[in-house]
Request: fold
Amino acid sequence: MYLTVLGINHRTAPVEVRGQVAFPPDQIARALAELIALDGMREAAILSTCNRTEIYCTLDDASPEVIANWLARFHQLDQDSLQPHLYSYQEAEAVRHILRVAAGLDSMILGEPQILGQMKDAYQQSLQANSIDTLVNRLFQHTFSVAKQVRTDTAIGASPVSVAFAAVSLARQIFGKLENQTALLVGAGETIELTARHLHEQGIGKTIIANRTVSRAHELASQFNGYGIGLDEITAHLEEADIVISSTGSTEPLITRDQVRAALKKRKHRPVFMVDIAVPQDIAADVAELDDIYLYTVDDLKQVIEENLRSREEAALQAEEIIDSQVERFMAWVHSLDAVPTVRAYREYAESLGDAEIEKAGRQLENGTPPQEVIKTLTRNLVKKLSHNPSVNLRNAAADGKAGLLEAVRILFQLNTRDKK
Reply:
């Protein structure tokens, strides 16, 4: 039985191809049912995100080709065109890959934490589909434990490395908790959407989104319990904003010094944190000269991000060391499973001998034999029967020069044979 990973990710395929092999949530159950019905497939789980689709499984056959063929069939794709984008790992390398994914070491943004939650969702889906058993179940549990250890023992996730996350992190440094703050976000593109998401996760009190297309502003704001306005309404709402983050394609500043000065007066000079991510700038540069204004540009954030990325890269080296040791630990457990049938057979053999001797002892007691004598006889007979076959095989091994078997027995039973020849 081979532990196997087959997948496609942001490093091996463009977004168009990744989209073709993604599994919508409502298709996961059917996909898992089909997977475990394949010849040679024992267990299966599917992780599907915008940046990767991976199948974790155990196979009787070492070849992952059966999974690749199924993946192409399921999504009605040409196998030959899909194959160059696929990768596969087995056994220890499969374990290493899964641990690296969960720790954020294989992510587009190094150390990002969202992937761990997505892996936990994949685990729950496989449990509901009854598509995993002992090995993959244990692998997921081990993976979650290692990811937690990496987060605890390294600084892999301590420093923001995206513009949106860096902006929100700076806001938290200035205000602490954000539950009493109002954020005015200008624009409705990907960066502003991500910023709104981060602010929402941090418990922001109120979110206002301003955009040239008001319907888009309303649509985005509604996802985060906020409301949308047009760009021409910014002046009227600026005094409400404790946090202003802007990212549009405007060629002229949308927020001027006079607008901000007027807003500060109405705010009685309560401080405002402003981040201008746009190039050219959305917020006039001379706004930074005003008291009670903390204005950061995209260049300021880039410097923070570059320093933080270096910090994460150093932490990633520590994380790799943790993962190396944990791969060995998990594989040692996997290899221990090979002994299970032998251990079970030996126990059943010993129990059958014991049952036979107990039955004889019972008859002896019924015939009046003294209990002490019965116990001695039972013990002597059981020892003889348990040691007979091993003794014969050990003598034969010695005669055939199989010193390795003799040494294995000494280790197995912790025997000291020195000076006992």
User: Anything to note?
Assistant: Residues 298-336 form the longest helix (39 residues). The CA atoms of residues 56 and 345 lie 31 Å apart. The chain has three domains: 2-153, 163-305, 338-412. The longest strand covers residues 2-9.
